């Protein structure tokens, strides 16, 4: 008797290979998600640091507006420097520094300097390259 089709060979182990390939593809997907999560955590910590720096700069600017002067008493300036440099405090930043510099060329109608730059710098703990981050705010009083 002639057979029109050759006999089928049995497939041994094909399901196992397909399973191993699908596990490999799934593993790459999970590793990719873990990498994205690590990046998201880094960005979240950076955003939190920027938010704290912004809040502190806003507090200093508000103080200047309330006093109607860019001159800050030494005791208050020291308190803010301590606050920004100690991450254990609510507004502190890692390796944080605060600098307040009067801006030249800005005076009010009485000829009194009325502008200052508030510079806050820090180095995030999560940054392996130790890149200096900074936030600058300019205050111009009426």
Overview of this protein structure:
This protein is α+β, with helices and mostly antiparallel strands. The chain has a domain at 47-140. It is built from two helices and three strands, in the order ααβββ. The chain has a three-stranded antiparallel β-sheet with strand order 1-2-3. The longest helix is centred in the N-terminal third of the chain and has 54 residues, at 14-67.
Provide the fold topology:
Blueprint: H1 14-67, H2 74-85, E1 97-102, E2 115-122, E3 133-140
Antiparallel strand pairs: 1-2, 2-3
Q: Rg to the nearest angstrom?
A: 30 Å
Question: Mean pLDDT, rounded to whole units?
Answer: 86
Tell me the quaternary state. Answer: single chain
Number of helices: 2
The outline comes out as: rod-shaped
What composes the largest sheet? 3 strands, antiparallel
Uncertain residue segments = none
Number of strands: 3
As laid out across the biggest beta sheet, the strand order is: 1-2-3
Measured by DSSP, the beta-strand proportion falls in 15-25%
Q: What is the helical fraction, as a range of percent?
A: 40-55%
Q: What structural class do helix, strand and pairing data support?
A: alpha+beta
Following the backbone from N to C, one meets helices and strands in this order, namely HHEEE
Distance between the termini: 107 Å
Nutshell version of this structure?
With 142 residues, the protein is α+β, with helices and mostly antiparallel strands. Helices cover 46% and strands 15% of the residues. The protein has a 3-stranded antiparallel β-sheet with strand order 1-2-3.
């Amino acid at each position: 008797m002639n057979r029109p089709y050759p006999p089928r060979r049995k497939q041994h182990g094909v399901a196992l290979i397909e399973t191993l390939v699908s596990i490999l593809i799934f593993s790459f997907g999970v590793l990719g998600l873990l990498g994205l999560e690590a990046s998201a955590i880094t960005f979240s910590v950076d955003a939190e640091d920027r938010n704290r720096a912004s809040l502190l700069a806003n507090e200093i600017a508000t103080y200047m507006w309330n006093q109607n002067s860019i001159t800050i008493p030494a005791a208050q300036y020291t308190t803010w420097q301590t606050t920004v440099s100690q991450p254990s405090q609510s507004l502190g930043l890692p390796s944080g520094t605060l600098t307040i510099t009067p801006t030249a060329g800005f005076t009010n109608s009485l000829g009194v300097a009325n502008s200052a730059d508030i510079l806050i710098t820090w180095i995030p703990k999560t940054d392996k390259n130790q890149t200096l981050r900074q936030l600058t705010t300019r205050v111009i009083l009426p």
